[in-house]
Amino acid sequence: MQWGRPAAALAFSVLFVGSCFTNKFVLSVLKFTFPTLFQGWQTFVGALLLLLCGKLGWVEMSRITRSAALSWLPGSLMFLGNIYAGSRALSHMDVPLFFTVQNSSHAVSCLIQRVVHREQKMSWTKLFSLLIMLMSALNLPLYDPGFDQTTYMWAVGHLSCVGAYRVFRIHFKSNHLSDIEQQCINYMFSVLLLAMAAHPTGDLLGALEFPFLHSYTFHWGCCASALLGFLLLLATVQLNSSLSTEHCRVWVLLSKAVAVSLSPLVFHVGVNAPSLLCVFFSHVGEVLLVFSEREAKV
Q1: What is the dihedral of CA 214, 216, 219, 222, to 10 degrees?
Q2: What is the pLDDT of residue 2?
């Protein structure tokens, strides 16, 4: 296997783990469970930095037309559902369990491909890998020591949006929007809706009573989460442009494995043997999925 540009891949992995852990720290350790404000801050900083980098010529970003932006709005809505529901779920789920549920989004993508886009029949290896990931996610709530029904409902919303967004990006036909421009629309659309929802959801009033509101730890955590998220975006775009889709998937898989392995050293992780098996088989299923897609291209 040709690994392409190792610097871009290693930078992606470091930023992936760092972004995941920083978000988990703010959401779970500091207990800042106000997703409209937290994700609104992240998307606002992301949009601001993207526009600034585009103005300075550091990233290639053309003027986004109104028709192109409107055609991408369904994707932006899925992106918003992804980050909002993901924050709700991650705030109460351990990192290994969160990724186990998230992995089943591949089954959602496959179902949409089959029903909506009439995808041809898949290989037995791919079908087996999807079943392993789906069964791991379905069995996880039965063995999770910290099971919470509301948390898992948000997790289901998150994986549904992730799966639908993945398919939308594949089948969205436009010669007018690059990956950076698509993300810029996602950020601006999310900022607008999250700002409007901050008061009706009670997040704005709740944040004013947040005990760590004037803590330097909280300020640094929020700044780091926004900056790492933006840098992860740039690293992802660079990775996609320098490596094949297959190799990108391998690096995402490796980054998840590193995050899962290191999370018990950083956070308290409450798992037992059955839930740990669900985590293990979910990632085995993802390895098989990558292998099946590589096999299909041979």
Answers
A1: -130
A2: 45
